[in-house]
Structures are given as C-alpha cells and as structure tokens.
Amino acid sequence: MIFGLPTLSFWLLLGIPAIILLFMLYDCWRILTKRKD
Amino acid sequence: MTANSIGAVVFGLYLVAIIALGLIAARYQKTEADFWVAGRRFGLGVLVMANMAAVMHGGAILSGIAYTGTFGGVAILPYISFVGGAAIIFYLFAKKLRQSGGFTIPDYMGDRFGSRGLRAWSAIVVAVSSIVYLIAQLRGMAFILERLLEFEFMTALILGTVIFVAYVAMGGLLAVVWTNIAQFIFMWVGLLILVPYVYDAVGGWSSVLQQVETIAPGWTSPTGTQWSGWYMVSWYLIWLVAYSTRLELVTKMYAARNDRIARASVPIAIGLVMIFLLYGNFYLGAAARIMVWDQLASADQAYPVLVTQLLSPTLAAIALTGIASAAMSTTDSLLLMSGSAIAHDLVRRCHDEPKGIEREEKVYLKISRLAIVAVGAIAFVCAIPDLALILRIVSFAIAIVGSAFFFPLLVGMTSRRVSREAALVSSIGGTLVTCVWIFGALTNASWASIVHPGIVGLAAAGLLMLVVTLFTLPVENEAINKYFGEAS
C-alpha cells in the first residue's frame, strides 16, 4: 500500500493523466484570464 | 405506495419536465443557427455541463460498473486516453472550430479542404453512424426502463422515442443541453444517495481496493484481471482516438459564446468526468464486486442489485429512476447530429447552395425539424426487431468515426501542406478498410481477430494521408486562410 493506493503501477495509471490534466487546467486559467491566446 | 409506483411517478414528473424544457427552448428558435448551435450563446458553466453530459450518461454508469466489476479498475480508467483526447481538442481543435463559424464536422471537412464531395461523404458517415448508434441506444433505453422501472419493452420504446423526437424537434440543441443538464443532475442524485450506505458496508477507498484485490487478484493492476499488455495498449489507443473525435463533444465547440470559452470548457469538463468516474464507476464497481458479485445473473445487474440491497424501497426507486432518466442523454445528441447531417449538410450546403437555391431561415428550420422526425421514425422502426447484428456493429462505431475524421481533423488543423485529395482518400480509404475489418470480425474470420478494426483503419488512413499528400498540391489559400490566417 503506497499512500492509500495498492501498487506503484496504479499510482502511474492515475498520476500521469492527473499531471497532464493539471497542466491543461493551468493553460485554461491563462486563456480565461487572457494571459494566453 | 410500492417502490415501482414511486419510480413511475418520479419518472412521469421527469418526462413532463423535459417536455416543458423543450417547449420553452422552442421559443428561442428563429434560425438554423439557433436550432443546431443554440445561437452560439453558451457560456462556460453551461458548456462544461453539456460536455460532461455528452461523455457520461445513465447507460454508461450501468455498463461502467458492470465492466469495472468484471475486468478491474483499468477497464473504465483509460484516463490517459481521456486526457490525451481532451488535450488534442483543447490545444488543436477547439479554437479553430469555433472561429470557423461552422455548425457541424462536415462543415469543417467541406470548408478546410474546399470540397463538396468531402462534405457530403462526411455527412453520410455522421448520419449513418449516428442512426445505427441511435437504434442501439433506443433499445438500451427501453431495456433500462423495462428492468429498472418494470415498463413493457414496447411501451418504453414508444414513450422514449416520442418524447425525444418531440423535445429535440421543438428546441434543437438548446433543448438537448437543458435536458442533458437536468438528466445529469438527476443521475448524480441517483448515485450519491448510495454514498453513506456503501461506505458503511465496505469502507473507504483504501479498504475497498484492498478487499477487491483479495477477491479478484489483478483488479487494481494496469492490465486488470484478464487483459494482456497489448490488449490494454490497443484499448487505450482506440479510446484516445474516440475521445478526440467524439462528435457529441467536438460539435459543442461551435455553440460556445467565443473561442476562449470553447477551449476552456474541455479540460474542466474532462477533469470533472474523471473525478466523478472514480466514484461512479471505479469505487462502485469495486464495491459491487465485493458485495453482490456472486448474486448476479449478469454483470449488467450490478447497480440495480447493489441499490435494492442497500437502500430502502423509496430511496432505491429514486436512485433507479435517476439512472433510468439519464440513460436518455446520449440519444438526443445522436438524433440532433444525424438530423443536422441531413438537413444542414446534405440539403442546404451540398444541394441548395451550389445550385443557387435560396430559402428563408424559417423554411430551413422546418426542414431541420422534419429531418429530426424522419431520423427518429427510422431509428424507432429499426429498434423494434431484436437485431443482434446492429448491437455488434455499434461496438465498432467509434472505429468508423475515428478512421473517417481523426487524420483530416488532426493534420488539417496543424498543417497547410495537406491536400484535398489526401483528405478525401484518407477518410474514405480508412473507413473502407475499417468496414472490411469489421466484416471480418463479425464473420469470425481469424485474420480479423488479431487487432481491433479501428487500429487497422487508422493506420490505413494515416498512411494514405501521407502518401497522397506527397504527390498532390495543397488546398488553395482561400480555404486554409480560415484556419491558419493569411499566409505570410
């Protein structure tokens, strides 16, 4: 058990998409606040 | 009052509410743009909800819990594909689609590549794939009403089809989005009622995962309980393409108030879908595997059995009605898309405009509504017999749409170099190869079982796009300036 999830591969399954999503949400915030076109 | 009569009353109220929404939305319909893209008035909140409803619906929750319970968490967690598909729409498609001012994907295909033939081909692919999918969805919806609320199958089919056709034909996209939001909220009421009861029975996240891994070894691994590594990769790839070309999602970009809102709505919606799926499919799928799996005749019964076992009859009726109502939310989008492919793309853009025929907007509005009624009638008649073949074809529908549109969208949005001929040959060739492979899979040919038809079709479409582009000239500036600005 690693921080509540059973395996490292499971962390990657959730973690990698979560990081990409956070990056997109950051860009999304910049678009909405007109810091990025 | 029994649980079934409570369910029927709640469902009856819900039907009255969506017809009322259709009537109110009808008052906003003056032009074709009002009907197909809701006058491009959607703000961020509405568009996020509409995008979420396009991805998730009651049928997806039922089959998601069944699928996750059977194959493991990986089955409903192609998260990398969700995020990858959303990133493609967010970074490459959304802004240009909204700025192009079209209504539909065939509009993009026709405008970007300056080809009426490609527009007509795309409209046929959208109309046929949506109608086939619609037939399966209507049957699925009738089954859900039959199983959850004990309606007669035929009564449920007639009731569902008439209500859909009525509110979609009256209110167009506006009615679809309003009702989808209502369905979506109702679905989540149905799911969230369960939270304290499931938590009491199986505990929190870590406890559930530990228990399910003991019962079904491999459940929490990246390849699940039964899959090979290669199958997982092809599954993820198919879903990546399916999400980046998901017509219900991509066409909603046209309805945004501006291109910033179109873009921003995508990652927010997908992020919320992912969070909700962790509970609605993943946690509940694991809980069902632990609690009720040995009592099920088929995996599809996981949610109804879980609900009836944990909740009081009244709460169970509300939970089941919520899911049954939300089973409708994809069907109306499909009806709208196949209607728009016929009325807007084929009649107006491919027939009337090239011949110089001018009709008033109210005439096109009438044609649009007639197309919705006609598509509804065709789908209803085809949904009556138990055509197992249609259900099998539907399981490959995402492969057909993906091979027809993925490369023309991806390459057309990123490169000026691609030619009209390349887009045409890639789209038609990729689709035909996919169809041949699907035919092989349906007739159980050994060569067709090696790999999913979508992978073969995509490979063919990509290769044809590359080879034909090398030997042909790019599309003229007039057509591509709309997507890339003036050439410097």
What's a quick, concise take on this entry?
Chain A is mostly helical. Chain A is built from one helix and no strands. Chain A has one domain.
Description:
- The complex is a heterodimer of chains A (37) and B (488).
- Chain A is mainly alpha-helical and 37 residues long.
- Chain A is 68% helix and 0% strand.
- Chain A has one helix spanning 8-32.
- Chain A is rod-shaped and about 45 Å long.
- The mean pLDDT of chain A is 82.
- By secondary structure, chain B is mainly α.
- Helix content of chain B is 77%, strand content 0%.
- Chain B has 22 helices and no strands.
- In chain B, α14 runs antiparallel to α15 (313-326).
- The termini of chain B are far apart.
- The mean pLDDT of chain B is 88.
- Chains A and B meet through α1 of A and α5, α10 and α13 of B.
Topology:
The complex is a heterodimer of chains A (37) and B (488).
Chain A: H1 8-32
Chain B: H1 3-26, H2 32-37, H3 44-55, H4 58-71, H5 79-100, H6 105-112, H7 116-149, H8 153-192, H9 195-202, H10 205-215, H11 229-244, H12 247-250, H13 259-291, H14 302-310, H15 313-326, H16 329-352, H17 361-383, H18 388-394, H19 397-414, H20 420-442, H21 453-470, H22 477-484
Helix pairs in contact in B: 1-8, 1-15, 3-8, 3-13, 4-13, 4-15, 5-11, 5-13, 5-19, 6-7, 7-8, 7-15, 7-16, 7-17, 7-18, 7-19, 7-20, 8-15, 8-16, 8-17, 10-13, 11-19, 14-15, 16-17, 19-20, 19-21, 20-21
Using the CA coordinates, give the radius of gyration of chain A.
14 Å
What's the pLDDT, averaged over the residues of chain A?
Answer: 82
Query: CATH homologous superfamily of the largest domain in chain B?
Result: Sodium/glucose cotransporter
What overall form of chain A do the CA principal axes indicate? rod-shaped
Helix content of chain B: over 70%
Catalogue the unreliable spans of chain A.
none
